[in-house]
Amino acid sequence: MKGVIDRSVLAHPLFTGVSRAHLALLAEELAGPWTAAAEGRRFEARGGARKRAAGAGARYQLVFVDRLVATLIHLRHDLPHAVLAVLFGVDRSTVTRGLGEVRGLLARRGCAVPDRPGLRLRTLEDVFAYAQTENIELRLDATEVQVRRPVAGRGGRRAFVSGKKKQNTMKATVVADGRGRTLWTDTLRPGRMHDVTAARAGGIASCFEHFARVEVLLDDGYLGLGRDHPGQAVTPPRRPRPGALPGRFEQWERDRHGHAADRITVEHALAHHKRWKQLIRWTHRRDRLPDTYRAIASLVSDRSSMT
After folding, report:
1. Which H or E run contains 111?
2. Around 222, how many Cα atoms within 13 Å sit in the side-chain half-sphere?
3. Rounded to two decimals, what is the model's pTM?
4. Separation CA 101–CA 112 (nearest Å)
5. For a 10 Å CB count at each end of the chain, is N or C smaller?
6. In b/e form, how buried is each residue of 257-285, taking b as 16+ CB within 10 angstroms?
7. Name one GO molecular function term (predicted).
8. 18, 8, 35, 34: which is closest to 72 by C-alpha?
9. CA distances from 297 to 66, 80, 114, 261 (A)
10. What is the pLDDT along the chain (307 residues), one digit of tens a residue?
């Protein structure tokens, strides 16, 4: 079967969501890990060492660069596997296998560090250590991705019903810096979980304990963290009590507006994530969404660090 579109055209930024220079860097970075993983799978399939010379045997119908491009198109536009198979001139199962391989590689990359080439942040502890070393004030917030409703009669079905969205969702906690550059995102949680509970499950309490000089700007959903970690978890100022002097209300409004203006950059980071269609509404298996979100976050962080 021959592809109906030139594969070089499919690498255009309108399809992949990344520039050609960014695509070249990704191919250079991930080719080695992908080749090693492929050799490991072949070793297991053979049950031992190679019996023929390297390069012998059948050739890949979908080479690594094409698998990378197909994965980026899938993340950006959520094209079905069957459509990608027609575009690249291969079987659908080949596309499905290739997407799973490359998506995992992208998810394990972590997020790029601005002005520090080669350094990537993969855990929340990494982010807090970086923030304390560089004296950076962090911004943290949660976002929800709509998912399909679980099968009726299955345990834990209500766990995904979001009280805020009134939909079945999964929740991601994201950390950004003052310029809206993504630094970290966690394993996604069921949408019913409260924002504070999700942050605590990600280990933020121990990070506050071990990195005492790091400040994190938060919204009203994290008042519990502000109470437990004063001076580090910075939440909006509390509203004055009824009967307070008029000047107190005016000062409270100014302080609250200033806090929102400082924290808005994490909302910008979340908006960059939602430009990738798969994070607008997830229609695939829920257990694949965490890797997908981390893969997209790593790509967005690359673009932010390049500017």
Report:
1. strand 111-112
2. 25
3. 0.89
4. 21
5. C
6. eebeeebebbbebbebbeebebbeebeee
7. metal ion binding
8. 18
9. 21, 21, 14, 23
10. 454 567 789 999 999 999 999 999 999 999 999 988 887 776 565 566 666 666 555 667 889 999 999 999 999 999 999 999 999 999 999 999 999 999 999 999 999 988 788 889 999 999 999 999 999 999 999 999 999 988 887 777 888 998 888 899 999 999 999 999 999 999 899 999 999 999 999 999 999 999 999 999 999 999 999 999 999 999 998 887 787 777 788 888 898 999 999 999 999 999 999 999 999 999 999 999 999 999 999 999 998 777 6
Alpha helices by DSSP H, 78-212: 81-88, 92-107, 124-134, 195-201, 204-210
Give CA–CA dist 74/65, Å, rounded: 14
> Domain spans of the chain?
7-107, 115-306
Rounded to whole angstroms, the Cα distance separating 41 from 81 reads: 22
Angle between helices 64-77 and 92-107 (to 10 degrees): 80
Residue 121: helix, strand or coil by DSSP? strand
Residues 72/12, Cβ–Cβ less than 8 Å: no
257 φ/ψ angles, rounded to the nearest 5 degrees: -65, -40
